[in-house]
Amino acid sequence: xxxxxxxxxxxxxxxxxSQIRELERAGAKLFHIDVMDGHFVPNLGLSxxxxxxxxNITDAELDVHLMVDAPEQYIDRIRALKISHVSFHIEASHxxxxxxxxxxxxxxxxxxxxxxxxxxxxxxxxxxxxxxVLIMTVEPGFAGQKFIPAMYEKIRVVRRELDKIRLGIxxxxxxxxxxxxxxxxxxxxxxxxxxxxxxxxxxxxxxYSAYTEFREEVSKLCEQGGRVALKPDFPKGNK
Length: 239
What we know:
With about 240 residues, the chain is of the alpha/beta class. It has seven helices and eight strands; from the N terminus they run βαβαβαβαββαβαβα.
């Protein structure tokens, strides 16, 4: 089964409130928020101030993706905001096991993110400490990049390794996901799709219609391929 997490980095910030409400009406129960520092990736994304503002207008789960150097310095803010899902890049932490434990103690589900060029072997000793794995299917930092086909095999390998440890752990994929690339990711074991400018915030349709059509197209492709059905809800995190 799969769920869809709209990426708020791709939204029209002037219409953020109304777009969130429309996405909730369409069925979105998890919103993906990229926090960037301009160092780990050459871009500035959203901020924890925006995370707080989003919390004021939605009861949906928030999935904060830390694209930052020294992610350890954000633990206090994560604890204060009671964010349900937080992922950090294993490339950015000198002590990922310690960081994962600190995040769990802060009350969040923990995701480990991998850049496209980071080998799966980097996960070997931290898988048991995480609640989900985020596989970047483009280089992190900018929307609109081309999907990297080699990531299909990476998803398959990560799913195989995860299932050796325990069944049911999620694989989130992020980067230029349309209906076709999404269905192929699901076929290889992905369960959470981060929807951005290639699927939901494309500007050609209102976000309600775009989200609904994206969900239906992916579900149809999955059914045709004998893959998996849509999750009715995203599992609640720790709050």
